[in-house]
């Protein structure tokens, strides 16, 4: 009966005990005017029927917390007006198809708590809602009326309540750093490896960044201190090492943001970075600023100055007074010896200063 309501714009049947397939077998859908479909928190089974393509105006599709299976359909690219796609807490498996990037206005994508695996798609820069940071209009969505936030989620959230978890692996795509309209990125509880891309400094509007419970390593990029809007940050349970940045928003994050990374040091942790040999990029930049102290230039300039002073001092004295006695020459020799000793001491002092920093 519902499938014949061609002018129906919003269908909300969330939090019920509906079971069976989304559409009865062999029954076509004629919901031509449907814009918002909410069937979350039910017991629906089967796959997502491609009859939804007959609803070209669909903007919100929330099928979260059901028992749906199969792969993420490739034909979702045909829903060009789709803005919110929530498929979390189901039994979807396989790789994430690149077609999920095709709806240009997609603002919220939540595929958490499924059995997805493989690499993260590198096509997200095609989604204009995540790339340009322009304000978006109000639409009907998960709440009655709200200003929706650009979000990407592949995390395994509330793991205690579900046995399934995503198993995305490989490196984090550099392309994610170009999504300057993104507000939330949650890719926690996967098997991602490698380092945090330095391109993440381009996430100019990011407010929440959760990379916890992965296999990430390396240093926390110093470039992330440029993210002035970042309010929530977690890299817990990874293999990061080196000094934690303490500039900008990073000064406000507590210890829990870094739990489970024994090679991290610095504030807010109690581990002193002087006891660790691993250094982040900020340390390397600091070393570059002071490396001239350790170099031979200062040492040889000092030696040259001492030599020139002694040499021209001797010549000057000999020129103005030809009757200098032995005491004068001994005094000059003593002065030169003193300057050479001072040069050696200064060299050792500057070297130790550079190493301590």
TrEMBL record:
InterPro entries: Leu-rich_rpt, Leu-rich_rpt_typical-subtyp, LRR_dom_sf, RLP_Defense_Trigger. It is found in: Cell membrane; Endomembrane system. Pfam families: LRR_1, LRR_8. It is a single-pass membrane protein. SMART domains: LRR_TYP. Keywords: Cell membrane, Glycoprotein, Leucine-rich repeat, Membrane, Repeat, Signal, Transmembrane, Transmembrane helix. One of its GO terms (cellular component) is plasma membrane. The keyword Membrane applies. The keyword Methyltransferase does not apply. The chain crosses the membrane at residues 297-320, 327-346. SUPFAM superfamilies: L domain-like. Belongs to the RLP family. This is Leucine-rich repeat-containing N-terminal plant-type domain-containing protein. It comes from Amborella trichopoda.
